[in-house]
């Protein structure tokens, strides 16, 4: 598989689904550096949207069960995604794999809201709480010229259908509490979507120095808050404009 295959697959998938995509602030996309892309998350189309919008393949951390389901496993492998491990190995394996990719100057994608917004359908303009793993990764990875790039996916027109019963997914990941409930897994299909690139947060030697001892928590909080606020602002501005002109 060539390094461009995930990008080509992403573009083909969006074209086949008839998705209209508008990309804003492309001048903020870093060049010639390793990048951790951080984005909001509501559905299976988010990974190909990010790749097509940024014009770059992404190695995206995805839910553990995706690596256990036949056919789905093959698809996400073609897309360059890497499933998270079982809970007892998850954190260490994520840091090791993602750090290795960044050291090769590949781009790593993270959806810090986790699986919650995929299982419980949310409104397109809402943003959940961020897990902090991506911030620890960026601050500890021994990689020069590393940027954390917040990106907002604003679904302007979509259809929602239901996929499989949530409890079926327990067959592939019994450790996930979200799958221990009734109901169907929702599936969001973007018809018209805006992808807005935020300001990159460059990791400097000063940031890494602050990521030591008692200062580490503050350094992580600053990075998480900055990315959350940037994506939240982009979503708010986009949907405010939509309401004004609708």
TrEMBL record:
Annotated keywords: Acyltransferase, Transferase
Source organism: Allocoleopsis franciscana PCC 7113
Protein's recorded name: 1-acyl-sn-glycerol-3-phosphate acyltransferase
Phospholipid/glycerol acyltransferase domain residues: 35-156
Highest taxon above the source species: Bacteria
Stretch forming the signal peptide: none
Pfam family, one: Acyltransferase
SUPFAM superfamilies noted in UniProt: Glycerol-3-phosphate (1)-acyltransferase
Gene Ontology molecular functions: 1-acylglycerol-3-phosphate O-acyltransferase activity
Gene Ontology terms: biological process: phosphatidic acid biosynthetic process
CDD domains in the record: LPLAT_AGPAT-like (cd07989)
